[in-house]
Amino acid sequence: MPLNRLLKYFIFIVFCFSSCLPFHAFLYIVPDQKDIKRFKHAVVKHADTCFEFPKIEKNKTIFVSNWTYKTPLSKMRLEQFLEQQQCYHFMVIKNDSIVFEYNDKKLKSYQPSPTFSVAKTFVSACLGKAIEEGYVGSVNDLVKNYIPELNYHKNFDLLTINELLNQKSGIHENVNHLSHTNYGKIEKILPKIEFDYKPGEKLEYVNTNFTLLGILIERATKKDLYQYFSEKIWSKIGTCDSSVWGYDYQTHHTRAFSFFGGSTRDYAKFGKLYMQNGMWNGKQIIDSNWVKSTTACINPLGENIGYNSGWYIGEKEFGDYMALGMYRQQIYINPKSNVVIVCIMKFDYRNLPLRWWQLLRQISGQA
Known about the structure:
This protein is 31% helix and 16% strand. The chain has 12 helices and 15 strands.
């Protein structure tokens, strides 16, 4: 082997063992469908009684106009569009009935599918439940009241739960944070947090915000996040299938910002829960005020923006909103049309520039 290549290998190995980023992080640096088997995970218990959405005999005929800033307008059947985009799973529910369903023939309909940052929306729901049950005072509480190790920077005297929840913490995301929250001991991030901005100054999407929220909820409730979510929410809404949530292999902290895997129909039940303002089968599972405030066009920080407490919010005139994960894993809710859409796309960057809000509204209007 040439000397220069040997030198490169030597530098690479030294970096792997001397840096904070573990070796296997390099092998799995890009998230994909295999993450659900690749990492340690805990089983999220489903409901004792499975709720089945009734299904019409044949898929409803739906057309979409698909376009980006690079490609011209083109009209096609929804099935054709989903095949073209190499979709894994797609489900449209109107008035509590499945009117359209698509599944990649190579995949089982109800096997767990990872949805990445959709987990952040689940964390938001858990926080609302923890506030309702008195474990957490309010979103205006200081984070350091629950995680006292956060005492070494003046910005911790300003940092509220609300600013973590709405991605306005000012925290700096770095490789070490991602390393520990993905591949190592999650709590290692606590003494090493840095700030780019004062809390509340700027919206910047940072995974560490929800890692901290996960730790906060676990400490407040004295339960693992996945367990709390299962007991208080997931098992209460008629979920049927095996679901999992990744956890830290050293401390078993739930990986709050990602790594959840569930079935299409169970994701749809979470969407139905929110469309019904937190009510399921006559029981209030999540406080209706929490549901309304976290899906409103104006977020708790008083800004009219498209992000609110782990949800992506559409324009006020449409009243729609969605939980969104990497590569367009989506739970879309359109209360005006009484439609829930679950979309699990292939992990492909070609899906990103598509105008998904318009596509999903087209589908809702025809469902």
